[in-house]
Write a structure and sequence with these properties.
The protein has about 375 residues and is of the alpha+beta class. It contains 13 helices and ten strands. The longest helix is centred in the middle third of the chain and has 37 residues.
C-alpha cells in the first residue's frame, strides 16, 4: 500500500498553499473580528477552480477525485484559514449531480463550477427535530404544478452568501409513512426568486460561521425545483454524507497540522527559566501526542478517500475519519492553547480563533456521539443505543 501522494496531487496541494499564503492569519483575524464573510478568499478560490474539484469536466469542473478534493480543504485549514466558509460549494452539488434531471445538471452545474452561482446553503436541521431528521415538520404541499412550503430551519449556514438553497421538506406527514425516512423531498430553491417568503435571522455563535434560523411562509416552488423523485429526498441526502464526512475530516486534519506546527515553533522560541519551554515534558508530550493523533487521522482519511474514489463502500471509514480527525484537531488545539499559556487567549496570536473553530467539528455536521453509535451498531453488531 502506497501512502505517498502522486506528483499531480503534490502540485495541487502546493498550489493551494501558495494561494492561501496571500490570505494570512491577519486576514482571517479581521474576518473573525468583523463577523465578515471571506469574500475575496472565496472569489479567488473559485476563480482558480478549486471549489469545482468534484464537478465532472463535461459540466465545467475539474473532474478530480475525493483524494484531491480532500487535499484542497485540508491545505486551506493547514494554512490558518477556515474552509467552512465555502466547503459546501464543493459537495452540496452532489445531490444535483447524482439525482438531478438532465436539465438541472446542464442548467446549474456549469454555473456552480465557475463560481457564478453559489450553492453553499443547506436547510435540513429544525429546532424540534435536531439530529432526528425524519421528525422535520417543514412541509411542501403540492398544488397543481407547484408546491407551497411552510416551516422553519435552524443552523442553516451561509444563507446570506448563497444564490440557491437545498431544502429538505416533508411531502408526506410522518404519521402517514410506513418507513420513517420516506415521504421527504429535496428542493433546489432560488433565493432571489423566493423573496420575502424566506426570512433568515442570524444566530450569534462563538465562531464566524454565518449561522441562521430560517422561517418559510407560503413559499411557492415550481415542480422543476424538485430534485429526483418526490418522497426520496432523505436517501438523496444520505448519498452525499460520505463525501461530507471525508471533506470535513480533511479540514480537521489541516487544523491539527496548524496547531502542532504553530505550537512547536512557539515552544522552541519562548524561553522561561532560561530554557525553551519545549524542553519541558508538560509542554512537549501533549504536542507530540497530538501529532500522533493527527497523523493517524490523516491515514484514515487517505483510506476513506481511496475507497470513495474506487467506488467501494466507505461509510465506516468516512465516519471514522470525521471522528478521529475532529478529536485529533481538538487535542492539538488544547495542546497549543496550553503551550501558549496566557498568550493563547490573546487574539493577536490567532490560537484562540482556531481553537474555537476546531471545536465545532466535534458537534457538526454530526455529533461524534452519533458516529460512536453508528460504529457500535453497524460495525460491532451491538444493540441500537437510541
Amino acid at each position: 500500500m502506497d501512502f505517498e501522494l502522486s506528483d499531480s496531487q503534490k502540485e495541487i496541494r502546493d498550489a493551494v498553499a501558495t494561494l492561501c499564503a496571500r490570505f494570512g492569519n491577519e486576514y482571517w483575524h479581521r474576518c473573525d473580528e468583523q463577523g465578515a464573510y471571506p469574500e475575496e478568499f472565496v472569489r479567488t478560490l473559485s476563480e482558480a477552480g478549486w471549489l469545482s474539484a468534484l464537478i465532472p469536466q463535461e459540466y465545467g469542473g475539474a473532474g478530480l477525485g475525493m483524494m484531491e478534493a480532500s487535499l484542497i480543504l485540508e491545505e486551506i485549514n493547514h494554512s490558518g484559514g477556515n474552509a467552512v466558509a465555502c466547503h459546501a460549494q464543493m459537495y452540496t452539488m452532489a445531490s444535483i449531480l447524482k439525482h438531478g434531471s438532465a436539465e438541472q445538471k446542464q442548467r446549474y452545474l456549469p454555473l456552480i463550477a465557475s463560481g457564478e452561482l453559489r450553492l453553499q446553503s443547506f436547510g435540513i436541521t429544525e429546532p424540534d427535530a435536531g439530529s432526528e431528521t425524519p421528525r422535520i415538520k417543514t412541509f411542501a404541499r403540492r398544488e397543481g404544478d407547484h408546491y407551497v412550503v411552510n416551516g422553519q430551519k435552524i443552523f442553516t449556514s451561509r444563507f446570506q452568501h448563497s444564490d440557491m438553497l437545498l431544502l429538505l421538506t416533508r411531502t408526506t406527514p410522518f404519521e402517514q409513512v410506513t418507513k420513517k425516512t420516506d415521504g421527504m423531498s429535496l428542493f433546489l430553491v432560488n433565493l432571489k426568486e423566493a423573496g420575502e417568503a424566506i426570512n433568515a435571522v442570524p444566530i450569534a455563535t462563538m465562531v464566524n460561521h454565518g449561522t441562521n434560523q430560517v422561517f418559510i411562509e407560503n413559499l411557492i416552488l415550481p415542480r422543476e425545483a424538485l430534485i429526483g423523485e418526490e418522497g426520496k429526498g432523505f436517501s438523496y441526502v444520505l448519498s452525499s454524507l460520505n463525501a461530507e464526512r471525508i471533506l470535513v475530516g480533511s479540514e480537521s486534519v489541516g487544523d491539527g497540522h496548524w496547531f502542532v506546527e504553530y505550537a512547536v515553533k512557539y515552544s522552541g522560541e519562548r524561553r522561561v527559566f532560561n530554557r525553551p519551554i519545549g524542553m519541558n515534558q508538560g509542554v512537549q508530550f501533549p504536542i507530540a501526542k497530538a501529532h500522533v493523533a493527527v497523523q493517524a487521522a490523516g491515514l484514515m482519511k487517505l483510506k476513506a478517500a481511496a475507497l470513495f474514489d474506487a467506488g467501494l463502500p466507505c461509510g465506516a471509514e468516512a465516519n471514522m475519519t470525521k471522528y478521529l480527525a475532529s478529536e485529533a484537531a481538538w487535542e492539538a488545539a488544547e495542546a497549543a492553547m496550553n503551550a501558549f499559556g496566557g498568550y493563547g487567549f490573546a487574539k493577536q496570536y490567532h490560537v484562540e480563533r482556531k481553537w474555537r473553530e476546531a471545536r465545532l467539528y466535534r458537534t457538526a455536521p454530526i455529533s461524534n456521539n452519533l458516529i460512536l453509535s453508528f460504529v457500535g451498531e453497524h460495525l460491532l453488531g451491538m444493540p441500537r443505543s437510541y
